[in-house]
Amino acid sequence: MRRGAIVRLVTIGLLAGLAAAAVAIFIPWLPAQQSREAGRIDFVFWFVVTICIAVFAVVAAIIVYSVVKFRAPPDDDSDGPPIHGHTGIEITWTAVPAALVTAIAIVSAVALAENGKLKANRLKVDVTAQQFAWHFKYPQYGDFSSDELRLEAGRQVELRLRALDVIHSFWVPEFRQKQDAVPGIETTLPITPTKPGKHTLMCTELCGLGHATMRAPVIVMRKDAFERWARSQQSGSGSAAGASG
Question: Is residue 219 within 8 Å of residue 236, measured between CB atoms?
Answer without folding.
Answer: no
